[in-house]
Amino acid sequence: MSKLPRPQAPARFRSMFPELADWLESPWTGPPPFLTGPAFRLEETARDHRYVIRAELPGLDPDKDIEVTVSGRILTIRAERRQQDDGPYRSEFRYGSLARAVRLPAAVDPADVTARYDKGVLEVSVPVADVEPEGARILIENADAVPEQPSGRTEKNPVGPDAAA
After folding, report:
1. Average pLDDT, stretch 68-90?
2. Which of 55, 59, 126, 144 matches a 20 to 30 Å C-alpha distance to 97?
3. What would the 3-class secondary structure string for the chain be?
């Protein structure tokens, strides 16, 4: 009986998914890079007639690396982290451009929007009259709570040519 040749899946797999193969062969350093996409976390709240968006953007210079724009009901935050040296031998930092867009509850005048950067958190404040979720609440009828109507009803006051006036 002859031995079957060993499949070449690892080489094929490595050529198709080099980042995943590197991650699988390396010591555990956290989630794989393909799961942690280039994004930053946001927090949205409503307080004191203002809609507040907070973004985690640590280690950036707000004058050079962060841009906030408003167009109609869309607020966009763009940030860029640049590598400052020739690079260490190994780095887990992420470099490059990032952007997130947030739909505002109502159109706003860009002149009324304020932004503040403090200790790695960008806070953008947008004035709004009343921040309420869009849409209307629909009343749900509970079928168990409504008494069933009999299907064969008889009328007490018949109407027709034979009815007495």
Report:
1. 84
2. 126
3. CCCCCCCCHHHHHHHHCHHHHHHHHCCCCCCCCCCCCCCCCEEEEEECCEEEEEEECCCCCCCCCEEEEEECCEEEEEEEECCCCCCCCCCCCCCEEEEEEEECCCCCCHHHCEEEEECCEEEEEEECCCCCCCCCCCCCCCCCCCCCCCCCCCCCCCCCCCCCC
Across the chain, mean pLDDT equals 77
Residue 25 lies in a domain: no
The pLDDT of residue 7 is 42
Q: Containing domain of residue 100, as a range?
A: 38-127
**Residue 147 counted as domain residue:** no
